[in-house]
């Protein structure tokens, strides 16, 4: 463990919050975890496990066919379009339709985009609509986290996750020279649990909490409200209007639609936990005529289906960019590639921000340090489902390509350095999560102790839970090696802990 973080850990608030662990499922991981811990757990070694095969995603690739797209009727009794016309502004005549009356608003909307465009849309466009369509995207109108939601994330598993991120942030702030003002920005804060645990844990470090201005980048009005409550926010009237303050630490809190809108000019600490995996990806597949983009189209019966684009698509430019960062051996092996232009752009913005304002960013997500082949998956109510089934009712996410993030950041600025990725297990272990769990276990009820031990294992464990005694197909899988941590910092800050 690091000396700097050891001193901080001793002073973290001793409270046990209960935590959300128990019989809920982590996002991306199959079924529930036992609400109890077998004694064997404490002595069991953690074994490393390989990431789930891409077949664990809904298995749609068989449906993508290497063939020309069917021509799409222009509504004139079977006449086929032979030229491309921009029909987006035209009235769509009430033609014979196979559309199911039970289609949700979002399904109708996505179908209308495909029809008006007279052709399929990219998976990235589909994903963006499904997740963040302002009316009915998956994240927009509901709380998708926890037992009654669709998946559970690390901050919901245990308070220790947010506390450890707090240790990281305070150490970086010290390396930054303890600036009197720092923009603490979280991208996609979910329920706000990570930040609340970070702030509670760091409550005794007055100089740190006094310096904070909190900025939350969140697209969902529902989740913004939840974050407001979790952070115990209150509105205060000040001379030039109103400001929102978190009563957990007295820091002002603001919400933004994107990182670009977060005010610049002060040193910054950016946290992105499970944010990148929700950014829309393009999928490409190797065919006899070269790399083709996989697209979402409508079948004869008006259901969604995958097809391969017969023509080069604009996003090929990002495929070329991504392949330019890969070795020829890496490229030879693959038949599919996922490319995430939004991740590249976001990383460039982060790198620019950090080089101009100072500070650093921490990115934690599930992913790979290299090309991601075929990882897109849909999860509804803690189960993997078909990616094209009832869009908007299931989470869509893809493995994060950490090598692409590293290259994007390094190309964007010479003033930053990129560290990692390292596994979540190494990251939390080096920051001292084992000391934290021991400290918390000193002063808690038996129920809380169970919850703490289970949560600890979920965060740092690897492979199948050794203590599991329930149904085999429900064996919980640890997140210790599937999740990776990467830091991007201004070179002036030196190497951030625990990446030395
Ligand atoms: N970090 C949280 C939540 C992860 S889920 C946790 O670990 O628990 C992804 C979060 O990002 C949600 O809050 C979602 O509403 C938000 N989000 C997803 N795409 C977004 C986008 N394009 N812009 C802003 N917020 C987005």
In brief, what are we looking at here?
The chain is an alpha/beta fold and 500 residues long. Helices cover 31% and strands 20% of the residues. A hairpin with a 2-residue loop joins strand 13 and strand 14.
Structure description:
By secondary structure, the protein is α/β, with parallel strands linked by helices. The chain has a domain at 154-280 and 340-372 and 397-464 and 474-493: Rossmann fold. Helix content is 31%, strand content 20%. It is built from 16 helices and 18 strands. The chain has helices at 3-10, 40-43, 105-117, 123-132, 154-157, 159-175, 193-201, 206-211, 221-230, 316-324, 328-333, 341-357, 402-412, 424-431, 433-441, 446-460; strands at 121-122, 182-187, 212-217, 233-238, 241-246, 252-256, 268-273, 282-287, 290-298, 304-308, 336-339, 359-368, 377-380, 383-385, 395-397, 400-401, 416-423, 483-490. A hairpin with a 5-residue loop joins β5 and β6. The longest helix has 17 residues, at 159-175. The termini are close together. The model is unreliable at 14-97 (pLDDT under 50). The structure holds S-adenosyl-L-homocysteine. S-adenosyl-L-homocysteine is lined by residues 131-132, 139, 153, 155-156, 188-190, 194, 217-220, 223, 273-275, 278.
């Amino acid at each position: 463990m690091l000396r700097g973080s050891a001193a901080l850990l001793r002073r973290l608030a001793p409270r046990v919050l209960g935590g959300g662990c128990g019989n809920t499922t982590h996002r991306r991981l199959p079924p529930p975890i036992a609400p109890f811990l077998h004694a064997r757990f404490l002595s069991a070694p953690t074994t490393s496990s390989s990431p789930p095969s891409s077949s664990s995603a809904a298995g749609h690739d068989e449906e993508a066919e290497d063939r020309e797209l069917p021509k799409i009727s222009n509504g004139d009794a079977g006449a086929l379009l032979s030229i491309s016309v921009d029909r987006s502004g035209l009235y769509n005549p009430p033609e014979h339709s196979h559309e199911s009356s039970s289609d949700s608003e979002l399904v109708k909307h996505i179908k209308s985009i495909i029809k008006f465009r007279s052709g399929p849309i990219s998976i990235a466009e589909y994903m963006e609509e499904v997740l963040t369509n302002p009316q009915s995207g998956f994240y927009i109108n509901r709380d998708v986290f926890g037992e009654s939601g669709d998946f559970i994330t690390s901050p919901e598993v245990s308070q220790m996750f947010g506390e450890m991120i707090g240790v990281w942030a305070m150490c970086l702030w010290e390396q930054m020279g303890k600036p009197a003002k720092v923009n603490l920005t979280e991208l996609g804060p979910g329920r706000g649990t990570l930040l609340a645990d970070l702030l509670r844990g760091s409550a005794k470090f007055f100089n740190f909490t006094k310096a904070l201005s909190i900025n939350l980048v969140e697209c969902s009005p529902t989740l913004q409200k939840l974050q407001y409550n979790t952070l115990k926010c209150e509105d205060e009237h000040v001379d030039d209007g109103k400001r929102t303050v978190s009563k957990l630490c007295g820091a002002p809190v603001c919400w933004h639609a994107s990182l670009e809108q977060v005010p610049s000019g002060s040193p910054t600490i950016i946290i992105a936990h499970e944010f990148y995996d929700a950014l829309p990806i393009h999928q490409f597949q190797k065919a006899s005529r070269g790399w083709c983009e996989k697209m979402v189209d409508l079948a004869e019966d008006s259901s969604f289906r995958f097809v391969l684009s017969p023509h080069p698509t604009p996003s090929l430019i990002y495929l070329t960019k991504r392949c330019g960062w890969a070795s020829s051996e890496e490229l030879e092996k693959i038949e599919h590639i996922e490319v995430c232009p939004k991740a590249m752009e976001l990383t460039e913005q982060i790198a620019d921000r950090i080089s101009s304002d100072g500070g650093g960013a921490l990115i934690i997500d599930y992913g790979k340090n290299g090309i991601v082949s075929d990882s897109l998956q849909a999860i509804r109510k803690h189960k993997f489902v078909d990616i094209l089934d009832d869009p908007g009712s299931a989470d869509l996410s893809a493995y994060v390509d950490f090598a692409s993030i590293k290259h994007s950041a390094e190309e964007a600025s010479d003033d930053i350095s990129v560290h990692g990725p390292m596994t979540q297990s190494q990251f939390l272990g080096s920051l001292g999560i084992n000391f934290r769990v021991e400290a918390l276990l000193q002063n808690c009820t038996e129920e809380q102790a169970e919850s703490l031990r289970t949560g600890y294992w979920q965060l740092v464990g690897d492979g199948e839970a050794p203590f599991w005694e329930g149904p085999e197909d429900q064996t919980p899988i640890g997140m210790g090696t599937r999740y990776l941590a990467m830091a991007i910092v201004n070179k002036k800050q030196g190497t951030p802990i625990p990446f030395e």
